[in-house]
Amino acid sequence: LVVSTQSSSSARSPVNNLTQDELKKIAAYKAVEFVQSGMVLGLGTGSTAKHAVDRIAELMKLGKLKNIVGIPTSNMTRDQAVSLGIPLSDLDTHPIIDMAIDGADEVDPDMNLVKGRGGSLLREKMVETASKKFIVIVDESKLVNHIGGSGLAMPVEIVPFCWKFTLKRLEMLFMEAGCIGKLRMFPGTENPFVTDNGNYIIDLYFKKDIGDLKAASDAILRLAGVVEHGMFLDMATTLIVAGELGVTVRNK
Ligand code: 5RP
């Protein structure tokens, strides 16, 4: 596989007939090429990040990566890393992380992200804002022109207390964008999805573009009852995209 590394152009190399999961794996493996021995690593969550964690463990077993410390962004990733023998720590011990690698649900041309459809947005944001480098790994289906405008969910983590009140307040904030909020449920049940932090998630759906992302972010965070939202603005330092035509690495 030939890979193009660039700062802004979009040259690609041919990779044909791959499944979405294979594309995710290509992006993840490419990101792990940037990992060096001795690094403290933020370990992302989701099906793309899972490939990166597998690859890190594989290179550790081969002796090609040594003295790695992982900071997991979810209980799921923690369990995966433990099962693979990756030594783990936390932000209390390592408040500065060398590099984090994680997937995303949407990526806009400025590398702003929507994350959290897997439910781990709070820990992801804590770990990734503490990282000197944040590599985002996606297959090309995640690329959008405007985040929040895809018709798919914009997750917001809220405290369970009076969640309907917070849901209404969130909808009212974005009334002009035709916002509908839905409490996320555990699939196939009538039970609310509960995050690793014991909170609920409201998925916001917009009929129209929400406009200024920074203003939207600030407004959501000002609401009492909100813990964090899934917009990751101006955080990614590198974007790795795998698509049918190849894989690109773009630095901010
Ligand atoms: C989890 C996330 C994930 O990174 C995001 O949902 C992408 O997931 P996947 O790699 O499975 O497509 O933000 O909270």
Automatic annotation (TrEMBL):
Pathway: Carbohydrate degradation; pentose phosphate pathway; D-ribose 5-phosphate from D-ribulose 5-phosphate (non-oxidative stage): step 1/1. The keyword Magnesium does not apply. InterPro entries: NagB/RpiA_transferase-like (IPR037171), Ribose-5P_isomerase (IPR050262), Ribose5P_isomerase_typA_subgr (IPR020672), Ribose5P_isomerase_type_A (IPR004788). One of its GO terms (biological process) is pentose-phosphate shunt, non-oxidative branch. It catalyses: aldehydo-D-ribose 5-phosphate = D-ribulose 5-phosphate. Belongs to the ribose 5-phosphate isomerase family. It is an enzyme of class 5 (isomerase). Coiled coil: none annotated. This is ribose-5-phosphate isomerase. It comes from Coffea canephora (Robusta coffee).
